[in-house]
Amino acid sequence: MSKENIGGFWKWFWIAFAGTVFATIWYFIITAGLASYYEKEGNSFYYKENYEKAIEAYDTSLKFDAENAIVYNSLGFTYYVMENHEKAMEAYNKALDINPDDENVYFNMGTIFLKEKKYDKALESYEKVATLAPNYADVYNTMGIVYSEMGNYAKARELFLKYMKSNPDEDYIGYNNIFELDLTNYHAFDKELEATFLKNFSEDEEALIAYDMLKNLELISEGKQENIMAWDEKYRDVSLGGWGFEEIDKWIVEIKDEMIKQKLIEAERVIKAHKND
User: Fold this and answer.
1) Which of 64, 193, 241, 273 pairs with 173 at a CA distance of 20 to 30 A?
2) Separation of alpha carbons 124 and 245, rounded Å
3) Can you give the pTM of this predicted structure?
């Protein structure tokens, strides 16, 4: 081959090589852009509560980027909201295959186990969250709920306190969880905690509605005067925020005094009819 031909060969080789590199770069740019586009579209459908469309968009996003743990987590949570726990866990496990240290995925898996009352597995997931992210405050509240449902009053209270102390001026949920725990385990409300709660949330009706509800139930259980109808009227336009009554239901069933039990049942009927979304 002449020198001229050799030079021509290398010229066309480098042109072809540059073209391939350029095409590859553009391929990755385009696929990454499409993956991001469909992920955002999935998020948009999710917030509009169009879950089927959200799943379709997340699946399309994953076709362009199959290594996106965040999208798998979003897909899993969407399935969870649709109460398809099997599909949700499948997506969560794929997310962990990609990123085994994602505390958000472990938290979401724990939520499914809690919902299914698989308490040991729920605690295993939540403890993994606490190890990976010790400042993940919500995990202590949720672990407290697990221990509460397991009947471990002392451990539940310890965890609710840990949650509450992590953000005492911002979140009233920990306080109300402790007040409910005390009520359903026949303990008087902690006066110091009550004082701090009322100081921090005296103007916050969303915080006070559950507290006042629990105080009314406490008064009934002690045979004292209460006014659940006044509570219902006072908070007519305020929601209980999705309050669960499982622990209160169990507590009422165990009340020995039939007159007090009946009053509690009547009060709870009014409470359960209140706005709670």
Assistant:
1) 273
2) 25
3) 0.76
